[in-house]
Amino acid sequence: MVEAASGAAGRPRFIVAALGITQIISWGSLYYAFSLVIHALASATQASNATTVGAFSVALLAAGVASAPVGAWIDRHGGRWIMAGGSVLGGALLIALPWVHSVAQLYLVWAGLGVAMAATLYDPAFAVLGQLFREHQRRAITTLTLFGGFASTVFWPLTQALIDHHGWQMALMVLGGLNLLVNAPVHAMLLPSRQAPPRDDSPKPPQPARPSGLRGIWRDPAFYGLCASFTVNALVFSAMSVHLLSLLQTQGLSASHAAWVGALIGPMQVLGRSIELVFLSKVHPSRIGVLAMWLLPASLVLLAVAGAQWAPLVLFALLYGCGNGVMTIVRGAIPAELYGREHYGAVNGAMATPVLLAKAAGPLAAAMALWLWPDPRDLLLLLALAGTVSAALFGYTVRRRAVLAAA
C-alpha cells in the first residue's frame, strides 16, 4: 500500500489512478495525436510536411523552457492550479488548432501547446506525487507511468477512428474537449495545494550527505553530470522514435513488418516498468539507471547487425523498450534520491529542460547524420556510441557522488 501525506490518506490509489487517466489523455492528445494530423495541418497551412513537423519541435522547445518554472511553482504552490490551468490551455488550443491558416499561426499554437505539456505531462505529475507520498513516491511514479504507457495504444486508434468518421477538425476538438471536461476538473478537484512535506519519524538507515538548498544543488557537479547523461540518452531515443521504421525498412523489412516491430516497443516499455515495480522496487534508482542506460547502446548494436531476422529484432524491441520504459522512472526518482523532496519540482524541472530540448533536436540530428553517412548502420552505430557515452557518464557520476558522500 502506498503511503500518502495527510491530505491524501485513505485514497492514495484513487489519486494515482485519477492522475493516470489524465496522463493517458494528456499524452494521447497533446503528444501522440500530432503524427496523425501532420498532413492535414500541412494542407491547411499550405506548408510542407517538414515545416509542419517543425511546429512540434517548437512545442518541445517551449516545454523545455517552461519545465523548470513549472516545477518551482509546484514546490511553492502545489500542482492543483498549474496542472488544471495546463489542461485548460491545452484543451483550448487543440480546439483552436483546426482553424489555423498560416505557418505563423500553427507555430504559435504549438508553442502554447508546449507550455501545456510542461504543465500536464510526467514531470509536474511526478512533482505532485513527491508532495503527496512519504516513503513510496517511486512506487507511485512507476504506477503512473504504467498508465501513461498505454496512451499511444488508446489514442492512436481512437484519434484515427475520429478522423475517419468525423474528420480531423472534429477529432482535434474532441481531444480538446477531453482536456477541458475530464483533465481540468480532475486536476482542480483532486490535487492538493501546497502543503508542508509530511513528517515521518520512523527509523531510517543513514542517508548520504546532500547539498543543502537549491544553491547547493546548482553547485553540485553531479547535478550537471546527470543532466548531461539524461540529455544524450533522450536525444538518442528521440532520434530513433522518428527514424526507426525507415531504418527497419532499409534492412529488408516490409512496411507492415517494420510497423509490427515498432509496435512491440510500447508493450515492452510497460513490461520494463512492471518488472521494476514487482522485482526492483527496493533497488536504488541510480543502480537501476546504470542497467537501463546500458540497454540502449546494446539494443542499437543488436539492431545494426540484425538485418531482417525476427529473433534479434524481437530481442531489440525487448531491450530497447524495457530500457526506455525504466528510464522514465529513473529520471523521476533520481532527484528525490539524491537531493530530497523539498525542492523536487525545481530540480526535476531543471533536469527536464535539456531533456526536452534534446527530444526536439534528436530527429534533426539523425537526419543530418543520414545525409552525411547514408548507410543506416552508420547511424545506428553512431547513436550506439552516444548511448555508450551517456551510460558511462551516468555510471561515473553516481559512483563518484557515492564516494564523495561516504568520505
UniProtKB/TrEMBL annotation:
It is a multi-pass membrane protein. Residues 193-213 are annotated as: Disordered. Its main location: membrane. InterPro entries: MFS, MFS_Riboflavin_Transporter, MFS_trans_sf. The chain crosses the membrane at residues 12-34, 54-74, 81-101, 107-129, 141-158, 170-191, 222-245, 257-276, 288-307, 313-334, 355-373, 379-398. CDD domains: MFS_YcxA_like. PANTHER family: RIBOFLAVIN TRANSPORTER RIBJ (PTHR43385:SF1). This is MFS transporter. It comes from Ideonella lacteola.
